[in-house]
UniProtKB/TrEMBL annotation:
HTH luxR-type domain ranges (all copies): 142-207
Keywords assigned by UniProt, alphabetized: DNA-binding, Phosphoprotein
Biological process, per Gene Ontology: phosphorelay signal transduction system; regulation of DNA-templated transcription
Lineage, top ranks: Eukaryota, Metazoa, Ecdysozoa, Arthropoda, Hexapoda
Name of this chain's protein: Uncharacterized protein
Residue numbers bearing the 4-aspartylphosphate modification: D36
Species per Swiss-Prot/TrEMBL record: Acyrthosiphon pisum (Pea aphid)
InterPro entries in the cross-refs: CheY-like_superfamily (IPR011006), NreC/VraR/RcsB-like_REC (IPR058245), Sig_transdc_resp-reg_C-effctor (IPR016032), Sig_transdc_resp-reg_receiver (IPR001789), Tscrpt_reg_LuxR_C (IPR000792), WalR-like (IPR039420), WH-like_DNA-bd_sf (IPR036388)
Domain Response regulatory per the UniProt entry, residue ranges: 1-103
Gene3D superfamilies cross-referenced by the UniProt entry: 3.40.50.2300, Winged helix-like DNA-binding domain superfamily/Winged helix DNA-binding domain (1.10.10.10)
Keyword Cell inner membrane: no
Top-rank taxon: Eukaryota
Length: 207
């Protein structure tokens, strides 16, 4: 499917070498960059290229395209700042749809990897959880809580963020205080947070 089918989108450049891309970005603006993870040869590519691009152009939204489906690589790429991932095996239409999704401010993760990826706690080096909601290829929009936690863990964390104490949550949900405390601790661990202070500090990133 050609770009002409999407009149609201314009392809402003295509590059085979990383230095050409970096040079172009210094002089031109773009909303979304579709980036191949592996460029080959002596090219700067992968996570190093992603980090360099975003350090210079932090507002640029990157859609990573790759034939690799390594969860470790994809997770590391998201932690480095990409907004979406798509397999090279996808048709052109899927690319344009992914571009539209991340340009709107959401994240794009294909169905075949989202469930596995969501099981892995994601935490930046400064302790912050990744910001923004996730957007999956099936059109479902989920918060970070719903993505990473079990329904019971998410429910307990929400109550806690609403200012409720463990005993109050236990009474409301008709569960023991030990069970509530367990859900709270396991939920915080999955979010990469170790203290209540961190949890409240990053509450806006969880919804």
């Amino acid at each position: 499917m050609a770009a002409s089918h999407y009149p609201d989108m314009q392809i402003t450049g295509s590059f085979s070498h990383s230095h050409e891309l970096l040079s172009w970005l210094q002089k031109n603006a773009a909303d979304v960059l579709v980036l191949d993870y592996i460029l080959g040869g002596d090219e700067l590519d992968g996570l190093s290229l992603i980090k360099q691009i975003l350090s210079r152009h932090p507002k640029l939204k990157i859609l990573l395209s790759s034939s690799m489906e390594s969860l470790a690589v994809i997770r590391a790429a998201f932690m480095s700042g990409i907004k979406g991932y798509i397999s090279k095996r996808e048709e052109a239409q899927a690319y344009f749809e992914a571009i539209r999704v991340i340009d709107s401010g959401l994240r794009f993760i294909p169905d075949n990897i989202e469930s596995e990826l969501s099981k892995i706690p994601v935490r930046k080096r400064d302790g912050a959880v990744l910001d923004g909601p996730l957007y999956y290829a099936n059109g479902e929009k989920l918060s970070r809580l719903d993505t990473l936690l079990s329904p019971r863990e998410a429910e307990v964390i929400r109550c806690f963020l609403d200012g409720m104490q463990v005993i109050e949550i236990a009474e409301k949900l008709k569960r023991s205080r030990k069970t509530i405390s367990g859900h709270k601790q396991s939920g915080m661990k999955k979010l990469g947070l170790s203290t209540d202070l961190e949890l409240f500090k990053y509450r806006d990133h969880l919804f």
